Amino acid sequence: MEINKGDVTFTESRRVLFMGAGLGLVLVVLAIAAFSSGKATGVTGLGVVFLIGAAWLFASAWSNRNAGDKPLMVLKEDGIWFFNADRMLPYTSIEGIEIETYCTHKDIQFNSTFHITPEKIETVPTFQYGRSDSFLNKPGATKGRAFRKHVVVFRYGRLRDADGKLVDMDDLAEELNYRINRAYEAEAAILVPTSAANDPLSHVQ
Questions:
Q1: Which of 38, 43, 151, 193 holds its CA 20 to 30 A away from the CA of 120?
Q2: Any bridge partners for residue 112, and if so which?
Q3: Which residues pair with 56 in a beta bridge?
Q4: Which has more confidence, 18 or 35?
Q5: What one-character-per-residue DSSP string does 39-66 give?
Q6: What residues contact residue 182 under an 8 Å CB cut-off, 6+ apart?
Q7: Global model pTM greater than 0.85
């Protein structure tokens, strides 16, 4: 993904929908096999566990049936817009990022973590993301804490760009780092002339 100067919009792939439905079917087959193998208490109990797991996966798949219909995240000039936030997250509020570049088959969702500068925690938007959303593997960003640090965690099945192509996570990290560094440089450029203008020995008029 090339570095962009304008807005960059991302939608979600149907990873959760397909993986949830596929893994759910596998568990149903295993449950049927467990019930058919005999009436032993242990085997029957295992079949019940498989059915419960299948029900959860099917529910997750159904909850994500509209994946890709709307933008999940937009990289704008001054910050990141998340679809479930009440305002943008400024780039200058982010002191570090962790973009998950690999997701195993047992992990349905990817995570991206944005570490927030402690002095700018008040600039973090409010997110609409509840426990039921997390349980059903719905996409969305949420605010939390990790190792006593403030973070914003963004969960999603897989991201697609405006052309519908799957996004390379290394390219996404590069794009984010570029925009964050540029925002900090712009902020510093504003502060330096202001202080210099108050210096009587400065050439700044």
A1: 193
A2: 99, 154
A3: none
A4: 18
A5: --HHHHHHHHHHHHHHHHHHHHHHHTTT
A6: 91
A7: no
